[in-house]
User: Which sequence fits this backbone?
């Protein structure tokens, strides 16, 4: 049976765990090698990562976090290959022992979240300032180099970290158990805990109106899909006017309806939570139940895409006062433009032709909300 446990309170607080590698039952002379089970877990992770990569990750490699998503997927396949070769060939003939693979992988993966999040945030904030004139090739090359540097630093840190190899546990009766010390990602633990706590505190003041706003967001999404099916996406690209004194073809919205619209910051929060709440609930459940997850499992594309959505939402919100719904940020599963419109006090029922007909624009320019 595959077991992962905390050796002591001190190591638990430091994020260290024990992964069971081998077991011998002296009474029945039965030997259990858990390498196969680890290989199956990594294989399942690769399958899930592939599904997440093709469904959530934008394939625009001009953005740093998109390259990071691809690099994690490649690293997962490499890790699965190493574990599989160890299982098929045995420890003596394989490149690395099971304990060495797990210990180094947990250290490397645990060192990735902080630099990836920081560099991803800098990339989104400065994209319009320093990189707007660069070609797609140079942007992609820059992101590839930065990603390789992040992995190289993590590998360097793992190489110089303490590795003690398999250790036999004491006081387990007639069963000999060899374990390997692995680590959790303390940053991901803090990320999930902090984000979940902030989400609960944010939802409480608006709890009675959330269902109404969700239905309104669904209506906007349906209207967006209808416009896409008819070959027009003007519904989400032509309703913002940076000059509040000039309105272009907007119908009057009753004041009582505008008061029911959520603040912009809460609209962004709602758009984020409606998609990522299951991931946060699952992660919090594991923490509450004391189910420790090593870094080579917790650092995955679900976490990276959740972090990516958070960063894109923050930058979109910060720049929306100047740019409105227009943004050079990558497409995201949270549909930030929908929730930007949800927070506006205007009725989004424009005829597309009226927005690109100059005569109609001049005619409607005198209308006010």
Assistant:
């Amino acid at each position: 049976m595959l077991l992962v446990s905390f050796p002591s309170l001190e190591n638990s607080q430091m994020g260290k765990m024990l992964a069971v590698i081998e077991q011998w039952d002296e009474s029945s002379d039965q030997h259990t090698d858990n390498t196969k089970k680890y290989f199956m877990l990594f294989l399942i992770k690769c399958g899930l990562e592939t599904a997440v990569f093709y469904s959530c990750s934008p394939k625009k490699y001009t953005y740093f976090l998109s390259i990071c998503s691809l690099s994690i997927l490649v690293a997962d396949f490499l890790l699965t290959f190493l574990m599989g070769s160890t299982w098929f060939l045995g420890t003596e003939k394989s490149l690395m022992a099971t304990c060495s693979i797990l210990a180094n992988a947990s250290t490397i993966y645990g060192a990735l979240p902080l630099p990836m999040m920081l560099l991803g945030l800098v990339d989104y904030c400065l994209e319009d300032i320093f990189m707007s004139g660069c070609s797609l090739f140079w942007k992609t090359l820059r992101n590839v180099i930065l990603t390789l540097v992040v992995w190289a630093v993590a590998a360097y840190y793992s190489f110089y970290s303490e590795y003690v190899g398999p250790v036999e546990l004491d006081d387990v009766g007639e069963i000999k158990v060899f374990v390997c010390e692995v680590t959790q990602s303390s940053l991901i633990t803090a990320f999930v805990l902090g984000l979940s706590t902030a989400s609960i505190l944010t939802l409480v003041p608006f709890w009675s109106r959330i269902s109404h706003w969700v239905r309104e967001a669904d209506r906007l999404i349906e209207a967006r899909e209808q416009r896409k099916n008819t070959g027009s996406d003007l519904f989400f690209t032509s309703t913002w006017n940076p000059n509040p004194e000039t309105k272009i073809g907007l119908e009057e919205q009753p004041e009582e309806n505008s008061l029911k619209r959520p603040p912009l910051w809460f609209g962004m929060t709602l758009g984020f939570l409606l998609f990522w709440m299951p991931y946060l609930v699952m992660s919090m459940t594991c923490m509450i139940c004391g189910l420790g997850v090593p870094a080579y499992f917790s650092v995955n594309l679900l976490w990276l895409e959740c972090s990516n959505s958070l960063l894109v939402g923050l930058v979109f919100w910060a720049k929306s006062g100047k740019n409105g719904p227009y943004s050079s940020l990558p497409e995201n599963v949270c549909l930030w433009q929908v929730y930007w419109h949800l927070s506006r006090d205007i009725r989004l029922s424009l005829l597309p032709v009226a927005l690109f007909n100059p005569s109609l624009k001049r005619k409607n320019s005198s209308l006010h909300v």
